[in-house]
Specification:
Number of strands: 17
CATH superfamily of the largest domain: Medium-chain alcohol dehydrogenases, catalytic domain
Oligomer: single chain
Order of helices and strands: EEEHEEEHEEEHEHEHEHEHEHEHEHE
Number of helices: 10
Radius of gyration: 20 Å
CATH architecture of the largest domain: Alpha-Beta Complex
CATH class of the largest domain: Alpha Beta
Distance between the termini: 14 Å
Number of domains: 2
Helix content: 25-40%
Length: 344
């Protein structure tokens, strides 16, 4: 089968098309014929560069969120051949206290498809049956990939941030994959969303997804605009998934007293300064989150099939164009997700 194989870390040029053996699903696994997989800043670009904190072992195949059809069953698996599925990247241990309590997003022994295991930048990928979620015919494979990757994570952010109807929520990077999902999930929960992004075009795209207001943080003072929009109060919750050294302090300063900043990303640099006096004087909280719980994935796919959510997709490209897709993302030349399709 064709796959995009990395044999060294570096720039997009390390992504090379190779013929590799088609995997055989083991016990408890299914083989998925991949029809869509997205390009992610952290789990693809950062892993490829060798700068990801939980790095991959070479040779490696990226791809955290493939969708497609079940082509083969491993031993002890009862699923339908041809079943349409999307794959959740996080393989949970199933035995830690968090997994047993149903809070598997906080699993202490998880590994990730596309990072510690070969992923979906290939014609076929073998994954644990538990990680393959059935998708409705109403969703295309590209849509299912984006929904399954980002909307459950947005529900996790909202839960960690204790978002409630009537709250003000600032979403950073609001036109990106996770950001655009965050705008829609927070709006769906009844919050007043301020969509913040780095260009007027990206702000407009996020506002069109349901945000009440928008801020271009490259052209406007983020904290001042948030204060103006909220009548001087600030926001209850910030979804901060960039960790840009210049933007993070502005987002943090936008919080109202007793506010929560929830973070699930560091592609903007990962090292930021913290105003500790503001933290304790205003009784603020900073909360780390990662991944999603099974209930979040099921809810996101169900709601999306009913038309509640709209994934923001920039384009679909052939799998063999993976290096070009990485360059597009690095250059900021996309608005929404880039999808790779091995059947093209």
């Amino acid at each position: 089968m064709k796959a995009i194989v990395m044999r060294e870390f570096g720039g997009p040029e390390v992504l090379r098309v190779e013929d590799v053996p088609r995997p055989t699903p083991g016990p408890g696994e299914v083989l998925v014929q991949v029809r869509a997989v997205s390009v992610n800043r952290t789990l693809d670009l950062r892993v490829r560069s060798g700068r990801y904190e939980r790095g991959a072992t070479l040779p490696h195949v990226l791809g955290a969120d493939p969708s497609g059809v079940i082509a083969e069953l491993g031993p002890h698996v009862r699923r339908g051949i041809g079943e349409r599925v999307t794959v959740s990247s996080h393989v949970r241990c199933g035995t830690c206290g968090y997994c047993r309590a149903g809070e598997d997003a906080d699993c202490t022994g998880s590994e990730s498809i596309g990072v510690q295991r070969w992923g979906g930048y290939a014609e076929y990928v073998a994954v644990p049956e538990r990680n393959a979620y059935a998708i409705a015919d109403a969703l295309s494979f590209a849509e299912a990939t984006v929904i399954g990757r980002h909307f459950p994570a947005a529900f996790n952010l909202a839960a960690k941030g204790e978002v409630k109807a009537g709250h003000w929520v600032l979403v950073m990077g609001a036109a990106g994959g996770l950001g655009s999902a965050g705008v829609q999930v927070a709006t769906h929960l009844g919050a007043n969303v301020i969509a913040a992004a780095g260009s007027d075009e990206r702000v407009a795209a996020a506002v069109a997804l349901g945000a009440r207001a928008g801020v271009n943080y490259r052209r406007q003072d983020l904290t001042e605009e948030v204060r103006r929009i909220t009548g001087g109060r600030g926001v209850d919750v910030v979804f901060e998934n960039i960790s840009d050294a210049g933007l993070w302090p502005k987002a943090f300063a936008s919080l109202a007293p007793h506010g929560r900043l929830v973070t699930m990303g560091s592609h903007g640099g990962g090292q930021v300064t913290l105003d500790v006096a503001r933290l304790y004087l205003n009784r603020l909280r900073i909360i780390g989150a990662a991944g999603a719980n099974r209930r979040d994935i099921e809810r996101a796919l169900r709601d999306a099939a009913g038309g509640t959510f709209r994934p923001l997709i920039d384009r679909v490209m052939p799998l063999v164009a993976a290096a070009e897709a990485h360059r597009l993302l690095e250059d900021g030349a996309t608005l929404g997700k880039v999808i790779l399709d091995p059947t093209r």
